[in-house]
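It is worth pausing here to work through a concrete case rather than discussing structure prediction in the abstract. The textbook approach is simple: state the sequence, then state the predicted structure, then interpret. We follow exactly that order.
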Amino acid sequence: MMVYGAIDIGSNAARLLICEVYENEGKLHFKKRSLVRVPLRLGEEVFATGSIPSEKMEDIVNTMKAYRHLLEVHGAIAYKAVATSAMRDASNGEEIVDLVKNEAGIDIDIISGKSEAEVLYTTHFEQTLDPKKSYLYIDVGGGSTELSLFSEGRIANTRSFNIGTLRLMKDQVSRSQWQEMKSWIEIHLKTSKDVLAIGSGGNINKLFKLNGARSDKKISLMELQQLFEKLEGYSYMERMIELGMRSDRADVIMPATRIFMKVMRWALIEEIYVPKFGLSDGIVRMLAKKLEFSA
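Step two, the predicted structure:
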């Protein structure tokens, strides 16, 4: 048994996933040992000012120090840390990478939206995806939405749009940006038939759970619309108390639902598959396989 770790620094939160990995009859098996989430909300400052302020930089460093200690205590033999939209957009992103390296001993890679999609998609093959079919990956985050079209087991096209939950909450998404997303979908999906949608991110996982967690791991566009209307009837506080949402989920769930519904409507997709599988899961799997094959 080996232990691996993954750190995902997003626009809304930083997550540490620690997994046990077993090999049986030539196949790797993954068992989640620990998942820690800190709602840093880096996107709130980055999308408003273009940089991450000094107090948030200190929060990042302290979070990474804690994550490093947890990795050591759990005996992780390897880990990988990545940062996405907020750090990509921050003018001082590279400065923060150096600061974290020097003070917390954690190496962070700032990755592109395309890299996010490839990690998520390729690690699904061993589970349920059919490499002969076409898939539209919809990954909704705080700062951006990544749309990736996969066909015959490879990435056919991908695009990152600065349309995210935190940006919508701050009214920082223009009509032209929505139109740009719509046009991309219409252009790149017009020749693809029977495209299946796959949703990624904490918000679609929460919506799936609120809907009753169907055994086929799908949620329909109609069900999303019904959930949206239901959630509109709750105040922010009621979503936390009555629906059991965290404070940093109760506000972003509405804009996230809007994004998923718009993409599905424009893509003429009636159902979305929700594997409850995030970027950190994919990183652990790719890391374990890479070290296994190089051993």
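Step three, interpretation. The mean pLDDT is 90. The longest helix spans residues 54-73.
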